[in-house]
User: Which sequence fits this backbone?
């Protein structure tokens, strides 16, 4: 496997592994907990590094995971006092833990190779250099195996607890009444997030982990109406943003993680703009169409109302109609043309006239718009 | 005290004062993490400002930071208005995407500008020691402007903060006032970036307001107190940092602020958890005395002073304010009463004046 392919594979696996727990975080309005955990793992990593003097040691993962869970616990402890809101609790806990990490590094690791940049930014480009070798056989980059394992664990756990997670996400009270354990499931999900963050940040850095956990599910939420579609969409968008992200990084020779995070945003914006029905473009076009249809209806009603009346001549004149409807001439011309195109209006000399089809349409619209009389 | 330390302490104090006071605007709207998002989202603006101007003057970089921080928040607002995505997800995504873009630009700057870009990343983790006198003037100027705006729109800001719907019915331009709040917050954050860095900035926004909120329920006092807490922690953090080598200022300020917030949650008058605990203990003691009085009364009037009385009888005599069962169990643990199965409760000691 070429190094480029290895990096891309690791990136795609990381994206998939992050999207799964991330999808539930977004639904539970806990997105920012991923932000908190990804920063608060620092003291755990530093402590593990001091104990083992090896950035690869598994103890680092354990301690980082522990400090991630400690973060969640502390946030809830503060929130439960009733004196601080959730956002405030999050905003207090993770900077404090991060500060402890930074102080530890500054005090005791002055000469050692461990800096906060590595934790925050990560460097995917180094992935191919750290290889897993078993009995002399090169099994590929270590990160490839870590991420594949992580994806497997996340997929398995979410598959096993799918029903429980969905129920507690959408209706925790009912779930509790039915005998499920919302709190237990909450901590399980948080544990999953912590493990994912810790395993992923080494390869891709804390910030990309946040982008991959929140961005793809947010994009999927714009399109999906059902849970399975939403989860699949999250996976797909995550994996999809990895490819152009890596491509851009290669092309411009810039940070891979940063480039992938940017692409998550670009992909989200594309979906946001172009989603059928819910996208900004579709909404704008629907709005325009509704405005036009309403204007056309108004013109038809006006003509119908004054038909066979003494004032009909004045009210149907091409020159007076825009004034009476308080429209600009351009708008009137546009609506008139649309009415003629649909065969509802006819221009006879300077007179605008309803066709038979136009009269029928106007009467039908009038009926639907007028409230039905009460029947008692 | 030497000159550098004086500059750094003044800078940190100013930053604490401004960011702390303005942070109340985010915290009281339950959007404390806006600070975190703006701080991260400032990065692309900082790098771009440097790439475009070739200057590393703090004012230039801060301007860039303010622009991209504001853009990120406007993006969040647009997402909230047009989709069903919630605040937390929109904010988290904006934070990560903007920061990612910043990292991309930073790595590009490393290629194009070479060594000239060195020091840009001090905005990531902050370095109070790099503060200069000019920086203080910029801080003070921006802070004064922000406070002047707060004073000018004092009533409007409070209305939008606490009752947006009411503000709208009064005919206030709510959208424009919200933009004003965003701009004020961005100023508060951008001012602090150079000193405490991207990650820790959120604490400087959140902690002073969280602490101040415990001491008062009036907005004016909360704002003043938050500024004061920020000022004290900033100056103290900078001073401690100067006492020993390799003690970065940012983390010290943040830890001091966090300690202050926790202390306030514990001991602030009225809202403090400690007082709540003491009040609860007193209430329980009063309840125990009431239950004992009832039992003694019952014993005095019953022909058999040792006759056990069921919980329902005791509860009826107490009224509904006191949970008889819980208090009786409590008294049982203290050896004052005894529970006779199927019969009820009995005093362990014969009350005085019983026949």
Assistant:
């Amino acid at each position: 496997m070429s190094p480029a392919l290895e990096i891309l594979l690791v990136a795609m696996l990381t994206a998939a592994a992050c999207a799964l727990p991330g999808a539930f975080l977004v639904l539970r309005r806990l997105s920012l907990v991923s932000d908190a955990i990804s920063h608060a793992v620092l003291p755990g990593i530093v402590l593990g590094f001091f104990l083992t003097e090896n950035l690869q040691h598994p103890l680092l993962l354990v301690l980082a995971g522990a400090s991630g869970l400690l973060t969640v616990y502390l946030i809830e402890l503060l929130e439960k006092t009733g004196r601080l809101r959730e956002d405030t609790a999050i905003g207090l806990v993770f900077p404090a833990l991060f500060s402890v990490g930074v102080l530890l590094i500054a005090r005791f690791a002055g000469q050692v190779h461990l800096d906060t940049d590595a934790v925050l930014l990560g460097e995917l480009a180094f992935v191919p250099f750290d290889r897993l070798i078993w009995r002399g056989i090169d099994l590929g980059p270590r990160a490839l195996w870590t991420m594949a394992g992580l994806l497997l664990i996340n997929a398995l756990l979410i598959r096993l607890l799918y029903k429980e997670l969905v129920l507690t996400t959408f209706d925790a009270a009912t779930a509790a009444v039915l005998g499920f354990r919302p709190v237990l499931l909450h901590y399980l999900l948080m544990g999953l997030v912590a493990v994912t963050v810790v395993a992923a940040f080494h390869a891709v850095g804390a910030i990309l982990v946040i982008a991959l956990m929140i961005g793809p599910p947010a994009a999927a939420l714009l399109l999906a109406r059902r849970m399975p579609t939403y989860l699949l969409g999250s996976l797909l968008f995550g994996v999809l943003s990895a490819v152009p992200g890596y491509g851009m990084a290669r092309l411009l020779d810039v940070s891979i993680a940063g480039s992938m995070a940017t692409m998550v945003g670009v992909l989200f914006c594309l979906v946001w703009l172009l989603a059928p029905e819910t996208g900004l473009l579709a909404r704008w076009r629907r709005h325009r169409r509704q405005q036009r249809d309403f204007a056309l209806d108004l013109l038809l009603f006006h003509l119908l109302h004054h038909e066979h009346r003494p004032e009909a001549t004045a009210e149907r004149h091409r020159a007076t109609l825009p004034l009476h409807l308080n429209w600009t001439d351009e708008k009137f011309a546009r609506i008139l043309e649309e009415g003629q195109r649909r065969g509802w209006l006819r221009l006879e000399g300077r007179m605008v006239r309803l066709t038979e089809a136009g009269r029928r349409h106007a009467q039908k619209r009038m009926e639907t718009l007028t409230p039905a009389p009460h029947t008692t | 005290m030497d000159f550098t330390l004086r500059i750094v302490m003044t800078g940190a104090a100013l930053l604490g004062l401004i960011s702390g006071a303005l942070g109340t605007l985010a915290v009281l709207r339950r959007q404390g993490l806006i600070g975190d998002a703006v701080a991260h989202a400032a990065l692309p603006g900082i790098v771009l400002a440097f790439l475009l101007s070739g200057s590393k003057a703090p004012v230039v970089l801060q301007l860039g930071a303010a622009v991209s921080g504001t853009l990120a928040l406007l993006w969040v607002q647009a997402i909230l208005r047009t989709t069903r995505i919630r605040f937390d997800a929109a904010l988290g995504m904006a934070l990560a995407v903007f920061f990612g873009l910043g990292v991309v630009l930073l790595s590009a700057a490393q290629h194009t500008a070479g060594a000239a870009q060195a020091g840009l990343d001090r905005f990531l983790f902050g370095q109070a020691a790099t503060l200069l006198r000019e920086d203080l003037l910029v801080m003070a100027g921006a802070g004064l402007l922000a406070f002047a705006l707060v004073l000018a729109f004092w009533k409007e800001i409070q209305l939008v903060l606490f009752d947006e719907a009411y503000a709208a019915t009064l005919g206030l331009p709510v959208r424009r006032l919200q933009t004003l709040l965003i701009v004020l917050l961005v100023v508060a954050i951008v001012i602090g970036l150079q000193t405490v860095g991207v990650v820790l900035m959120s604490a400087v926004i959140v902690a002073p307001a969280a602490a101040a909120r415990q001491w008062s329920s009036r907005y004016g006092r909360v704002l003043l107190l938050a500024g004061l807490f920020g000022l004290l922690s900033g100056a103290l953090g900078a001073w401690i940092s100067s006492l020993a080598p390799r003690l970065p200022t940012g983390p010290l300020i943040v830890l001091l602020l966090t300690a202050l917030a926790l202390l306030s949650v514990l001991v602030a008058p009225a809202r403090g958890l400690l007082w709540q605990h003491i009040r609860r203990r007193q209430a329980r003691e009063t309840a125990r005395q009431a239950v004992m009085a009832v039992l003694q009364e019952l014993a005095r009037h019953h022909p058999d002073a040792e006759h056990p009385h069921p919980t329902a009888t005791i509860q009826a005599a107490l009224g509904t304010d006191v949970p008889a069962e819980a208090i009786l169990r409590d008294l049982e643990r203290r050896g004052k009463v005894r529970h006779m199965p199927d019969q009820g409760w009995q005093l362990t000691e014969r009350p005085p004046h019983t026949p």
In short: Chain B touches chain A through 63 residues (CB under 8 Å).
